[in-house]
Amino acid sequence: LRLAEGPRGEDIRTHLRELVRRVTGDGRITVYTGSEIAAVSGYVGNFVTTLADGRSISHGVTILATGGEPYRPAEYLYGQDERVVTNLELDEMMDDPRVRLARSVVFIQCVGSREPGRPYCSRVCCTSSVKKALQLKKDDPARGVFVLYRDVRTYGFLEDLYEEARRAGVIFVRFEPEDKPVVENADGQLLVTVRDPILGRSLVIRADLVSLAAAVLPSPDNARLSGLYKVPLNEDGFFLEAHMKLRPVDFASDGVYMAGVAHGPKNVEENIAQGKAAAGRAATILARDRLESHGVVAVVDPAKCAACLTCVRLCPFNAPRIANYAASIEAVLCQGCGTCAGECPNKAITLQSYNDRMYLASVDGLFEEAL
Q1: Which CATH architecture has domain 298-366?
Q2: Can you give the pLDDT at residue 370?
């Protein structure tokens, strides 16, 4: 694990090692490492996942927790000068002599985030930079520590870290997105030039180390898993919840949930909270002896069905199946939206309690003469 501490100083590595020990030591849990999903079938309470090596796993629910990937910068001399690192790399080298002996350290925010093609905020970058800047300043009060930012987003009670860093002497310089800092190697010296909008002039900082707050990217597996489990992604490539407020860890497809950075960038505390929420939602399914369908579900008349696949293609919940040359509806999956009933060219599908005969009778009743 590359991340050592959480925003409040939590010992992530020790906590994670203990979790791994408990999971691998529990005989009720099977861990498949180095595995890849090849196919998925079934529905809530009755999923079958096939691995690339041919093994099949039957399970009642699925939680997608694919994590994310760090952005590898192509700017600010990253990869060209060893003194330019990312925040994640800096976290691993805090005891390195390059850090301990550095007299001037510059943090540059929003590297790869809030850009065309990647407009979202990675959310953890500001807190990470401010926390490291404060630690570097406390280790050596005479050290120059600069944070170059567009907006400081240490949200919630993490704002206390920002205020503490300001009081400790960390210098914050705001820059505009159209006038970003410039990092250059001038005869072996690492120079960072940034225009201060308050002073109205450019500042040149002679840096011993530059740390880039690189963006958090969605996992490259998200697109493939989205197709396998029939769940949506947002425009940024992260999984999209059914409802931001009412169903924040659910998908529209029952029995499939999400947790962590798979849903979007978030800090450790938020990841744990969302993981617990997903586990709680999964338990509501697993704790039942049997599952009941909704009161209103679609029903197919096999005599009228031509197996044209219209309902299979249109259903957002993947409820229709073709068997024996006719469609059938998985009642547990059906949400009663009526899309299949409205689009079936042979009128072979009806929605329970919403058939044409009932509504035509109601309309006829409206126009009957009053007795």
Answers
A1: 2-Layer Sandwich (3.30)
A2: 57
| Kind plus residue range of the DSSP H or E element containing 151 | none
Tokens of 270: 């938020």
Q: Which CATH class is domain 32-67+219-286?
A: alpha beta
| CATH class given for the domain over 70-216 | alpha beta
pTM (two decimals): 0.84
C-alpha 54, offset from chain centre:
29
Quick check: 47 and 255 in contact, CB under 8 A? yes
Q: What is the mean pLDDT of residues 241-252?
A: 94
First-to-final CA distance of the chain: 80
Nearest CA to 332 out of 348, 351, 343, 318 is that of 318
- Tell me the DSSP string of 313-364: HH-TT--EEEETTEEEE-TTT-----HHHHH-TT--EEETT--HHHHHHHHH
Residue whose structure tokens are 């998985």:
330
For the chain, where do the domains classified as CATH 3.50.50.60 start and end?
A: 32-67+219-286, 70-216
Average pLDDT over residues 81-106: 94
Stretch 333-341: mean pLDDT: 89
Give me the torsion for CA of 230, 232, 237, 242, rounded to 10°: -140
Contact between 47 and 56 (Cβ < 8 Å)? no
